[in-house]
Amino acid sequence: MATPENTTENGFLKAKSPQGTSTPGRPQRSFFMAQITLRILAIAFTVAAIPIMVTAKEPVSLIGLSIAPRYSQSLAMKFLLGADATVCAFSVLSLLFLWPLSRSGSQTTSYFLLFLHDMVMTVLMISGCAAATAVGYLSKYGQREAFWNPFCSYVTKFCHQLLISTVLSYLAFFCYLALNILAAYKLMSHATE
C-alpha cells in the first residue's frame, strides 16, 4: 500500500534512493520505456514498408503486350502506403509528446489523449493492412466465380515485395495494438487510484 511519504502529490509511487531522495517509480519508468520502444519499432516498420512498396515493379510481356504492375495501380496499395506514411509521421509526433508526459506527473487527460491517438493509428493500420491483404489474396489466388485470374505467377518479384511491405505494416499494427493495451492498463490504474 502506498503511504504518504512514498507518493507524489499526483499519486504516482516513488522509490527512495540510498541517499534518501525520491526517484521515479520503476513501473512508471517501465511504462515509458515500453511506450518509447514500441513507437520506435512502429516507425522503423513503416519506414521500411514504404520504400519496399514504392519500388515494387516488375515489367513483364504477355501476349506481345508489355506491362509493368506498380503499387499505384491499386487503390488498396495506395491506401496502405498512405496509412504507413501517416502512422510514421504521427508516431514521431507522439514520441515528442511522450517526452514531456514522462517528466510531468499523473495527467489522466494526457494519457487519455495518448490512448485516443494510439486507437486511431491502430484502426488506420489495420484497415490499410486488411485492404492490401484482400487485394494480395486475389492477386495470388484469384476468384474463379468472378473470372478474376491470379497474376502473381507472372510477376512473382512484384508480389513478394508487396507481401513484405504488408507484413511490415502488420508488425507496425501489432506495435500499436500493444500500445493500446498499455494505455488502457494505465488508464485503469489511474481510475483505481
Automatic annotation (TrEMBL):
Protein family membership: Belongs to the Casparian strip membrane proteins (CASP) family.
Pfam families the record matches: CASP_dom
Domain of life: Eukaryota
Residue numbers spanned by region Disordered: 1-27
Stretch forming the signal peptide: none
Keyword Cell membrane included in the entry's annotation: yes
Source organism per UniProt: Populus euphratica
Compositionally biased intervals (Polar residues): 1-10
Summary of subunit composition and partner proteins: Homodimer and heterodimers.
Record GO cellular component, one term: plasma membrane
Subcellular location: Cell membrane
Every Casparian strip membrane protein domain range: 30-175
Database matches in NCBIfam families: A_tha_TIGR01569
Protein name, entry field: CASP-like protein
Protein's membrane topology: Multi-pass membrane protein
Keywords, sorted A to Z: Cell membrane, Membrane, Transmembrane, Transmembrane helix
Gene name of the record: LOC105111743
PANTHER family, A to Z: CASP-LIKE PROTEIN 1U1 (PTHR33573:SF47), CASP-LIKE PROTEIN 4A4 (PTHR33573)
Transmembrane segments: 36-56, 76-99, 111-138, 158-179
